Amino acid sequence: MSQDYYQVLGVERDADARSIKKAYRKIARADHPDQNPGDDDAEARFRAASQAYSVLSDQEKRGLYDRYGEAGLSAGAGDMNSVNLEDIFGSFGDIFEGMFGGFGQQQSGPRRGADLRIRVPVSWQQVIDGAERSLNIPRHAYCKNCEGSGSNSKAAASVCPNCRGSGQTAARQGFFVMANPCKRCAGQGHIISDPCSPCSGSGRVRQEATVEVEVPAGVGSGMQLRLRGEGECGDAGQARGDLLVVFQTENPPNGWERDDKDLHRLLPLALTDAVLGTTLEIEGPRGKLKLKIPAGAGEGDQLPLRNEGLDDVNGGRRGQLLFHVNLQVPRKLSRNQRKAWEKLRDI
Ligand SMILES: [Zn+2]
Ligand SMILES: [Zn+2]
């Protein structure tokens, strides 16, 4: 089960303290549980790296590890296999400081639930009008049968008598002391004598929750909404984590371009309309609109319709709808048209 600590961090055996710290920081940044909610593999890598770092960053422990391997540690330096996240934050606070907004100062003890993140696709129509959406969120809830205790009779878990709570057992093999995960408690350190069947003793059950979310009109791709208390359940008595809703918006239809809350559109315009001016009925994001073309409109002129763009998600003014004049030069002329243009030239 246990890997070589140097390999875990990806450093050479003679790496100095600085490179070891750097290597650990890199892994911690990528695999931190807060960054990867629900990703067990990332959490396992994070724990393994943290354990490796806790040893290799300590001169004395590193020396023991170099000489005797992990066995040297369990004999001399206490119980390294049961390293838990709270200990990691407590011991290496300086590593994490400034990395994720200072959870380095986090207190050990019961933790609130993890945050969940969900991507929500938003159609172009919903970008224009906004919407009420019901989201199905797979998350955990306390098991009702055992009230979260994991035990059928709701009895508290008892300390494993085999390993006395450490989660590992030591076996002497000649000179060396080998550490193995405790078989009785599967390395947990505690046992539940009558595991609850609906939750297999974990105290939690997977559940699909329905959460209502308001998609604000004018929402942009990547915008996030934080719904407090709609994430994973935490330790007993602690608040649920938050649900982060990340909106992914559909692109505007062909011919339209979006710039924040402004919309741009190419306006193919007949030469006669450009010269003489007119009023056109055109399709806006919310239905038909009247657009006044001033006489003498030129190629590339911008004709704005204020307040006809997208809503401002922060409650400010609506954006504008901008038409870009694109003159249409007639390529095929009928006999009569040709005569008319020739007449124009001679005037
Ligand atoms: Zn249960
Ligand atoms: Zn045990």
- Percentage of residues in strands: 25-35%
CATH class of the largest domain: Mainly Alpha
Q: Oligomerization state of this entry? A: single chain
Structural class: alpha+beta
What would you say this structure looks like, in words?
Strand 10 (256-259) and strand 11 form a beta hairpin. This protein is 26% helix and 28% strand. The chain is elongated. It has 347 residues and is α+β, with helices and mostly antiparallel strands. It folds into three domains: 5-105, DnaJ domain (Helix Hairpins, Orthogonal Bundle); 116-149 and 202-249, Sandwich (HSP40/DNAj peptide-binding domain), CATH 2.60.260.20; 256-346, Urease metallochaperone UreE, N-terminal domain (HSP40/DNAj peptide-binding domain), CATH 2.60.260.20. It has a four-stranded mixed sheet with strand order 10-11-15-14. A three-stranded mixed sheet has the order 1-9-8. Mean pLDDT is 85; it is low at 76-91 and 93-108. The structure holds zinc ion (ZN) (2 copies). One zinc ion binds at residues 143, 145-146, 150, 196, 198-199, 203. One zinc ion (ZN) binds next to loops.
Brief sketch in words of this structure:
Helices cover 26% and strands 28% of the residues. The chain is α+β, with helices and mostly antiparallel strands and 347 residues long. The protein folds into 3 domains: 101 residues, DnaJ domain (Helix Hairpins, Orthogonal Bundle), CATH 1.10.287.110; 82 residues, HSP40/DNAj peptide-binding domain, CATH 2.60.260.20; 91 residues, Sandwich (HSP40/DNAj peptide-binding domain).
